[in-house]
Amino acid sequence: MKNIVLPVDFAESNDKLIDGAIQFAKEVNARICLIHVAPLDIGFAIGDMGFQYFPEVEQNEIKGELAQLHQLEQLIISQGVPCEHLLRQGSAKELILEYAEEKEAAFIVMGSHGRSGMYDVFVGSLTKDLTKNSPIPVLVIPCHK
What region holds the UspA domain (predicted)? Predict the structure, then answer.
């Protein structure tokens, strides 16, 4: 069975991405390997005394994100597609590519929000970075409204 790595960010557009990934997984007889990459600075805040770290904030955020991943995994399984999930913290591009290599993924499935131009200049586009740098084929599903 092939593996498909599916990075998720819990955006509103996830529904289209998940539906497209499920359909594609069924077509190619694949398992979906969900990954969510959380930033390293979740528990940090800036205030009068500069940067402060709040471990309980980070723990609560990670716990909530793991619960969301588990819900997505159950949704995918309920549609007849094998699924597993993973949460890591760090640089999204590097961790997604590492996970895809680790899982010997046949594909990475990403969403496109339909933004371009100045948005990419200031924010960057993970989908664009992955399509440029991945040795694994990347399927891009349009998720904009």
Answer: 1-142
Give me 105's structure tokens: 């993924």
**Tens of pLDDT along 61-81?**
889 999 999 999 999 999 999
What's the CA gap between 35 and 101, in Å, rounded?
13
Q: Is 40 helix (H, G, I), strand (E, B) or coil?
A: coil
Query: Nearest CA to 66 among 31, 91, 93, 42?
Result: 42
What angle is formed at CA 16 by the lines to CA 142 and CA 24, rounded to 5 degrees? Answer: 85
The predicted model scores a pTM of: 0.84
pLDDT digits (tens, 9 = 90+) for 5-35: 999 988 776 889 999 999 999 999 999 999 9
Domains: count for the chain: 1
Q: What is the CATH number of the domain that holds 102?
A: 3.40.50.620
Q: Which tokens is 16 given? A: 């289209």
Q: Which domain does 117 fall in, by range?
A: 2-142
- Comparing CA positions, the residue from 36, 54, 56, 37 lying closest to residue 45 is 54
- Residue 70 CA to residue 107 CA, distance in Å, equals 21
